[in-house]
Automatic annotation (TrEMBL):
Chain ranges of the SecDF P1 head subdomain domain: 138-235
Cleavable signal peptide: 1-26
Record's keyword annotation contains Transferase: no
Keywords for this protein: Signal
Annotated Gene3D superfamilies: 3.30.1360.200
Name recorded for this polypeptide: SecDF P1 head subdomain domain-containing protein
Length: 248
């Protein structure tokens, strides 16, 4: 982008234009950089997904380049209250695997593995309140997700997740089953990102009803955390992306 400045003078009542001087547009200096090692043949795809993640996370001053199995991202963190927002490393390298699982047991009855990545048939997670939840098989996966974005509802930040038609059907089937559980402790579903618990809401529906199309996750998120979680959910990366250097 260039701007043009016209130099003008008036001589004997005649306006003379001295020409146009083109001034180069000064791009902002980018103060942060990460360099990633990516699986062979995926650099362009990873760069595209990272661009989407940075858009959702509000990181607009950035550049992304590729060279073989390396992807370099230079950027300026967004600001809030005049201060740089902390940009988490997982924004650049975490797979962004999204799953929803049913809660099948609570507390002392929970005995499953704590590996809740997608390949696990069953697993267990611990909430911030130190409650242990045993989880069943994946009911909704990242292939069912259409989009994710940060939302501010009544001054509380959260993440809104919209589903594909297939995802809406899967969510309806899972939530409809949970709504009919007789034990109130088992009417909950766990929403996970890369195997880590984001929320475990209770399905507050009558038996015969179900959820579909979208869900909202809230609780303990500030704007930056909501935006970065939404960025991870909306643009999955292949396994094996790894930061090899960063600055500052």
């Amino acid at each position: 982008m260039r701007s043009c400045v016209l130099a003008a003078a008036v001589v004997a009542g005649v306006l003379l234009l001295a020409g146009c001087t083109r001034l180069p547009f000064a791009a902002p200096e980018l103060t942060h950089q990460v360099v990633l090692r990516v699986p062979a043949g995926t650099a362009d795809a990873v760069a595209k997904q990272l661009a989407h993640r940075l858009d959702v996370a509000g990181i607009t001053e950035r550049s992304i380049g590729t060279d073989g199995d390396r992807v370099a991202v230079s950027y300026n963190p967004p600001k809030t209250g005049g201060k740089d927002v902390e940009v988490r490393d997982d924004l650049f390298q975490a797979p962004g695997e999204f799953t929803i699982r049913p809660v099948t047991a609570v507390g002392a009855k929970a005995t499953a593995s704590d590996d809740c990545t997608k390949g696990a048939e069953a697993c267990a997670v611990t909430t911030e309140e130190h409650e242990v939840l045993q989880l069943g098989p994946v009911g909704v996966g990242d292939e069912d997700l259409a989009s994710a974005k940060a939302v501010d509802v009544q001054n509380q930040w959260g993440v809104r997740i919209d589903f594909t038609d297939g995802g809406a059907a899967a969510l309806a089937a899972l939530s409809g089953k949970l709504a009919c559980e007789e034990d109130p402790a088992l009417t909950r579903m766990a929403i996970l990102l890369d195997g880590k618990l984001l929320a475990a809401p209770t399905v507050q529906l009558e038996c015969g009803q179900s959820l579909s199309t979208s869900v909202e996750i809230s609780g303990g998120f500030d704007r930056a955390k909501a935006e970065q979680n939404a960025a991870l959910l909306g643009a999955p990366l292949p396994e094996g992306v790894q930061i090899v250097s960063s600055k500052p």
